[in-house]
Each structure stands twice: as C-alpha cells, then as structure tokens.
Amino acid sequence: ELHRFVHVGEADRFTVVAVMTGDGGESIVGEARYAFDPDTVLVYHFAGRGEAPADTTANGNNAETAGTTAEGSLVGNGLRLLATPITIPNTPTLEWKSGQSLTISTWIKPAALQDNAVILSRADGSASFRLLLNQGMPIVQLGTARSQPAAPVATGTWSHLAVVADGKTLKIFLNGDLYATLDGALPALTTPLFLGASENGFT
Fold first, then answer.
1. Residue 76: band (very low, low, confident or very high) from pLDDT cuts 50, 70, 90
2. E strand or H helix at 2, and its extent?
3. DSSP letter string, 18-70
4. Tens digit of pLDDT for each residue in 160-171?
5. pLDDT greater than 90 at residue 4
6. Strand partners, 161
7. What share of the chain is helix, strand, coil (3-state, %, to 5)?
C-alpha cells in the first residue's frame, strides 16, 4: 500500500520519485508519469533546454513551441515567459467543460513588475480565461470580470501560485493562503492554451 509520493529530484527528462510504503520502506521509481493520479492531465518540469515543454503525465500533452530556458530555477530548470507565447494544443484530456472543476498550480518569480503579464490564457471569442500578474498582483479573469487585486508578489522571489475552480467560484491561493476570489465558472473551451502572451495580443 502506497501512502505518499515524495519528489526527490530530476535529471533531464528522467524524474526520480521515492515511494513510501505502508511498512515504512522506500523504493525508487523512474517513470514520472506513474506518479500522477488520473485527474492530473498536465505536468511540465521544463527539463529540456530550448525544447518545447514535455508533459510528464501519461497524457502526452506536450507544447508545440519551444520556450526560453531559465537556468537554475527552484528545482532544475524553469521557463522564462517572454512576449512570444508557448502554445499547448487542445486534446481530449485538456478540453474544458462548462462549470468543471480545475486546479492550476505553478511557481513564479517575476523579474520585474509590469502591466497584465500573462501567465496562462485560453479564449474563444468572449469566452476566455486568463491568469495574470498585474504589477505583481495575481489576477484571474473570466471574460471581462476580474478578481480584486491585493498585495503584489516580490520581484526576484519564488512564490507558489494556484487557481482552484469549483463551478461557482475561482480562488487564487498565494503561498498556500487564499489571496482572491472571483464569482463565476469556467467556460467550455477547446482552443489551445498559451503560456505567456495570449493568442489575441493581450499582454
């Protein structure tokens, strides 16, 4: 019986995971995709230098475009979000149904404060979702409705950012604490997702 997974480290595309068993023993496995439950549809470790981000789950939701590698990030390499977005094509496992539940989790370290810096976006006409940093303040946006800003994150410092949608409300968590909420539900979307600048020039 497995009680928990502990992420130990990674080298290139090979992730080492320590598996804690019920009797207190430990074993090591090397296939990262086996460490995720079926509800986890996409995980990027940004291990490849100058390559399109590769999904480490069994779903194969790889990005289409390469990004700029950020060397020496929190764990291994990271991705530097610039003006050119990283495109993630839609797949059956990435399709959003109206009002579905969803959790997005990432680590961020802004180099500088700027207006409406896009972290993640997806849109089809007026139906849209965006996760932004506006002058360092995490914002979630559905259509034209935005969550209320609070204190900005510090530049040059790692912060954990998560968005949780439950079909009625979107909640932003910053370093584990509730940061902001927005009434509303995710729209049905089958368009590509974008990391960084969005598909319609919104930056």
1. confident
2. strand 2-11
3. EEEETTS-EEEE--GGGGS-TT----B---STTS---B-STT----SS--EEE
4. 999 999 999 999
5. no
6. 106, 174
7. 0, 45, 55
